[in-house]
Amino acid sequence: MAVIKPFRGMRFDTEKAGELKTLCCPPYDIISEEERKEFIKQNEYNVIRLELPKEGEDVYARAGEVLDMWRAKGVLIHEDKPAIYIYEMEFNAYNKRRSVKGMIARVKVEEFSKGVILPHEFTLSKAKTDRFNLMKATNCNFSQIYALYMDSEHTTLKTIDEQSDFDAQYEFTDDDNITHRLWVCTDEAVIAKLIKDFADRKLYIADGHHRYETAVNYRNWCRENGISKEGDPQDYQMIYLVDMEHPGLIVFPTHRLVRDLESFDKNKVLKSCEEYFDIEKFTSVGNMNTVLTKQYKEGKKAFAFYCGKGEWYLLTLKDLAVMDSVLPELSPASRQLDVSVLHSLVLEKTMGIDKENMANQINLTYTKFFEEAIMKVDKGEFQCSFILNPTRVTEIRDVAAAGEKMPQKSTYFYPKMITGMVMNDISVE
Questions:
Q1: Is residue 404 part of a domain?
Q2: Is the pLDDT of residue 359 over 90?
């Protein structure tokens, strides 16, 4: 099962590089070009120069040069001893201050077919190519994959709580009011206990599918080119591990916006939906989240069809059994997802947006922001939007355990891990 190990993490020397807050950044794939430039303007040593390189003719080679330069100057340093890092994020969600805490370790990567580390979403090849080129040029992980594990007794969480029952060694609050804390655990007995905890566990990828698939490809490439052999550090990837039942675990929904459909007619959509859905009309979005939450708590498959100017329709599936005939090739776990119901019965069957169209985002755009899903329809930029309830963590587990994947953008784990607090320099044992 899952094999984890400590590592001598690479971190910024803040005495030379500046305040940690000015050195870290959000995940590369949610940063605009303007934001990227602003991070560098605030601090030339910001990790964005490594994680999202844009300098020079060969941006990846330049990232490798910058990395070498920073290590030589002592801007980046390595832990004296192998460590496991305890990482906590404290944040606001659903009108409440919450926190989620897990541990960062090196984890041995395995092909999905081995059933040790399981995905839950489909990925796009472009992002994997980018991350692969960066790994080849730097031999590093600058950001972590996010994975969940099952632990009914919460033994690992108890251990990391004990090992972080004091002020964090590193802490800052970012511009989104998310507080990031890091503890460095080098106690060999504690590390041995944590390694043993994972000996019979599977891992479920929550976020970072592209990076995980890239890590497997990179390991294979290193072996094929004589750079590494089985058991070498290239076999391991830096992963953030969180208890699947952690009370602070939050998954936001990802809403769908529809654009540029020829002869779009909301009435035709509603007429077609009558066969499968109970339909209720509303004239104000003020109660939309309350209505959807009620359906969610009752275990119903429901979402909002927003048409603009406050007008929306609650679509509630009449009989879940219809999905057995619509998606017979999939497991019950996949058939029963809200996104599966929406995609198969509405987007594909009613609106003609097939899977390839969705994958290429020809007529579909995704957003995690409720306000954006409403506002852009009101402005006429989109023809309609579908507001969803969040996917349950147990649904993610069950789909992954069935060896299947959800449609793209089915989940949005919040908050996103910060990049730059600790990094994995694969060349350092």
A1: no
A2: no
pLDDT in tens, 254-284: 999 999 999 899 999 999 999 999 999 999 9
User: Quick one: 302 and 382 in the same domain?
Assistant: yes
Q: For residues 198 and 121, which has the higher predicted lDDT (pLDDT)?
A: 198
Question: pTM of the prediction?
Answer: 0.90
- Which residues make Cβ contacts (< 8 Å) with residue 350, sequence separation at least 6? 269, 272, 273
Query: Does 47 map to a domain?
Result: yes
Residues spanned by the domain of 154: 4-250+414-425
Does residue 334 share a domain with residue 299? yes
What is the tally of structural domains in the chain?
2
| 404: its two tokens | 């299947």
Q: How far is the C-alpha of 78 from the C-alpha of 116, rounded, in Å?
A: 30
How many CB atoms are closer than 10 A to CB 287? 11
Radius of gyration from C-alpha coordinates of the chain: 23
CATH code assigned at 324: 3.30.1760
CA angle 403, 408, 414 (to 5 degrees): 100
pLDDT at 328: 95
Let me know whether 114 and 139 are in one domain.
yes
For the sheet with 255-258, list strands across it: 277-282, 311-317, 302-308, 384-387, 255-258, 364-367
